[in-house]
Amino acid sequence: MSDQEEEALKIIQSQRQGVLQSELWKILEIDSRKCSRIVKRLLDAGLIERVEFRSDGIKTYLLRAKKRAIDPCVILAGEEILPCIGCERECVPEECALLLDWMYHLAFEEFQE
């Protein structure tokens, strides 16, 4: 994936509601044709979805990142689930005792394999 494709994907992923294609090329500071090619590659890769959208009577497209299934191995250490899921604490991840303990279990599990 090219740097511009990665940048476009990050911009699209950062907006929960999506990004208008007519705005994306302005944000990326590229022309609309180049933006269309980038969007096509992201669509073909299955990373985004495109929905027809009318803005001030002009047809454009709303681009949204596709949600991908999470590999359960990423959130499990042994039988312990990542403590951040559902956590309501406002903490600094580097200082969170629950997260550090979970990471310790994960590292210990990998060491035993």
UniProtKB/TrEMBL annotation:
Pfam families: B-block_TFIIIC (PF04182). InterPro entries: TFIIIC_Bblock-bd, WH-like_DNA-bd_sf, WH_DNA-bd_sf. Residues 11-67 form the B-block binding subunit of TFIIIC domain. This is Transcriptional regulator, MarR family.
